[in-house]
Amino acid sequence: MNRKQQFKEGLITNNPVLVQQIGMCATMAITTTLFNGIGMGLSVLIILTCCNVVVAALRKIIPDEIRLAIFVVVIAGFVTIVDLLLQAFIPALSAALGVFIPLIVVNCIIIGRAEAFCQKNTVKDSFFDGIFQGLGYTCVLIIMCVFREFVGSGRFGGGLIDVANGFRFTLDGTGGGIQIFPEEFGAAIMNLPFGGFLTLGLLIGLMQYALKRSEKKKKAAEHAAKEAALKEVEE
Amino acid sequence: MNNKIVKLSMVLFVICAITAGILGIVNALTWERIDQITHQKEYEAYAAVLGSESGYTQVEFDKAAFPTVDSVNQSNDGNGYVVTSTFSGAQGNITMACGVGTDLKCTGISIIEHSETSGLGAVAASTSSAGEAFRAQFVGQDEGIALSKAGGSIDALAGATITSNAVTNATATSIKCIASLG
Q: Would B116 disulfide with which of A110, B75, B122, B146, CB 3.0-4.6 Å?
């Protein structure tokens, strides 16, 4: 399978959030600071890749009738492992994401990829599918976080960057971020779930517009090529 | 047919058993650290709300009258009490430590555990400047503490009225509980 094609699918043409439109609940809920977005995105990426590999490896053993039950067991297992590791080693992230880490179990991206991709493809392909789809998800989260944080509270990089005592990265989520304009002038509604809906809707709209346009261009190019070929034949 | 059911359940059982085994190992590797972090958090919360150099001693209180209160800890320095309580916030339970001085005024609050919405209610527990400012308002309040919407002087967190209200009420309850000790 073509890696480039897979990469493009994960990030753009078959992006899990913007095109497949799965896993949207957490997307809207946690995208309030850059720290949360990157943390959640990477957690999903790791869990997705692990689950993809295991499901693909077991795909010949798993009976069709109980495949969903087995997928859920595998996913729940990995989510619990990541949850425990986060609690033990990055407690700030675990505290910030709260219930949304355990909720990855029911995030449709993971079960969706297991069902749509891994049970029909090799371990290697599934591994890359996990990484690219995870990256696609992370990118969307980052865009949403940056947008909501900026419009909502006039900040960039909340939790991740601290500028109070010189520029530094804070990996424990304590950084205040870079204040671009005073917080009072921000549209606080963007920090609320409503802002999440709005941002996600705008992003999906933009994505669909871009996809349609590139499709039209492709069709027009094909059409022109056909006409040229016809003309040549006529001549 | 029967054979098939047996086969299906065997496959499911084996996969579940392997998963459970792996989880057991991960749990064994991490529980000590998680436990340590929880204890440390609790201790830090106590120290943040009411400093005590000689530690704390748990004292009895009227559980029936104050069902949300988990424990009352008297400072061995004699400067007051730390009340821990668990109550419901906007998304789930919040566990909080509230310091109460001998003059029955709040000496500070610290949220130990919560599952509030990240970026909204969770700010009440965060170390960000907004979180610090929110908690600083509680220092010096007495049992009449209330949100500014309800005529008090606590400004609610933006977009998190339920969380702010729950924390305010819990502070009032904590102070009343100490008052009832006499």
A: B122
Q: Encode pLDDT of A137-179 as tens digits.
A: 999 999 999 999 888 888 887 777 777 666 777 766 666 777 8
In a domain, B17, yes or no: no
The pLDDT-based confidence of A106 (bands split at 50, 70, 90) is confident
Q: What percentage of chain B reaches a pLDDT higher than 70?
A: 98
Q: How many domains does chain A have?
A: 1
Range of the domain at A45: 3-234
User: Are A112 and A20 spatial neighbours (Cβ–Cβ below 8 Å)?
Assistant: yes
Among A70, A91, A188, whose Cβ lies nearest the Cβ of B158? A188
Residue to substitute from B3, B6, B14, B15, interface A, most A β-carbons within 10 A: B15
Q: How far apart are CA A212 and CA A166, in angstroms?
A: 45
Domain count, chain B: 1
User: How many angstroms separate the CA atoms of A101 and B4, rounded?
Assistant: 36
Question: Is B5 inside any structural domain?
Answer: no
Q: Does B36 fall in a domain? A: no
- For residue A66, what is the nearest residue in chain B, using CA coordinates? B8
Residue A111 has pLDDT above 80, yes or no: yes
Domain that holds residue B89: 48-181
